[in-house]
Hints:
Elements: E1 3-5, E2 12-14, E3 29-31, E4 36-40, E5 43-49, E6 55-60, E7 65-71, E8 75-82, E9 89-97, E10 102-109, E11 113-121, E12 131-138, E13 141-149, E14 155-161, E15 168-171, H1 172-181, E16 194-202, E17 206-212
Parallel strand pairs: 11-14
Antiparallel strand pairs: 1-6, 2-3, 4-5, 5-8, 6-7, 7-17, 8-16, 9-15, 9-17, 10-11, 10-16, 12-13, 13-14
Amino acid sequence: MISFTTAFVAATLAVGVLASPAAAPAALTKRNTPNSSGTNNGYFYQFWDDGSSGTTTYTNGPAGEYSVNWQNVGDFTAGKGWSQAEPRNISFSGSVNCEGNFYLAVYTWSTQGENYILEDYGTYNPCSGGTSKGSLYSDGSEYQVCLVDRGNNYLQNWSVRQNKRSSGTVTTANHYNYYQSQGMTHNPLSSAVYQIVSTEGYGSSGSADITVS
Length: 213
């Protein structure tokens, strides 16, 4: 088990703003350099913090388990999964305790954009600042789908689950195939650097304990 506490500001490139900047993530950035990433107990892990305020502590647990605690942060992402994105059926379980802004999502990142299959979130729905791409039904719930353009040709694909949950299984192929059918230009599989079940907090305090398989 290893633990990291933020003491480093990641190199970032500023990009656009959302329609509701007071509720959106404080750091609207391309996440070029994670604070830490690697392999732990057979899983890839990633931890990134923008370093703008507060503290974040990330801890790897056994197998696919991780925990994260944050206090008054700007923005961070952390989680476990795989170093390559594939159309996996991804199971997760655990809890997130946060009264403010957070995301719990199957998340991929690349230099061209990000993909969020959002299973639980706090006070801000990211599709409120995006272009609607309809909806799809998968894994027991309707998902609102949208495209968010952060500027500088940096795009985010979002699937926002209507029945929020912190445990379940995500059939990622359903989402990735739908994105392509709607002409959403960022391909989540060909260019993604990693695929994780991510906890993200922004402008908030909280804790999470999640196990991925």
